[in-house]
Predict the 3D structure of the following.
Amino acid sequence: MTDATRSDGGHVASPREHWVDRSGLWLPTLFGGLLLAYFLLPFVAFLARTGTADVLAALSTPAAREAVRNSLLTAPIATAIATTCGVPLAYVLARRSFPGKRLVVALVILPLVVPPVVGGAMLLTAVGRFTPIGAAAAAVGVPLTDSLVGVVLAQTFVAAPFVVITARAGFARVDERLEQASRSLGHGPLATFRNVSLPMARGAILAGITLTFARAIGEFGATMMVAYNPRTMPTRIWVDFISGGIDAVVPLALALLAITLALLAVVQRVGSVPTVVDA
């Protein structure tokens, strides 16, 4: 047997061929490395400024505490709403074909591609104080704008697609024969969903919930339009930047970054995020 052939007639790559294969990756590696460096540079530059700010003192101010409290209150509520409504929708999209399904999928994806500020403007035309819905809500003491309810509405609009998309992909990976076996044993649709489909898609659903929470807690554009007050962490960061520049936003931005990194660790823990499946 020579360097180029095996005993069964197959070809064995020579060291020269291995070198050629590897050398052919230098260009994509170069461009990929440039992109990674571009991702890394802002983090390094930002973290280098943390020494110039008294983080703990800044986070203990009433304005900062209020912003953190508002974000940690509204983002879980928005995530819970998105999960409660989005996971069943994801299952239907993964398991059923019906007229208008592509339109429904497009409607789910639309908030992801619409600029958040535009999304906020759209929400104002639907639930603003001078709309029928907004006026009715304000009349009973539940204003839908410039309130924590408004923050939740904005966060849910921009963040809910993440849990729908990832959960749908997770359900699509569940073997339908397992669900059919459950049904043949006398379990109804809800029992099958709860005992078979949901546990087997759990990783994708948890990843979607985590991404939804991360998107909700970091939402800025739609929140600015719908509920500039009360402040959340992103809107407080913007106000601090306008009044005090970069150094003024370091404490809250660092806190928000820490939350985001923790959420990223959760996503890595529960597994990779599934890709969007075709309609």
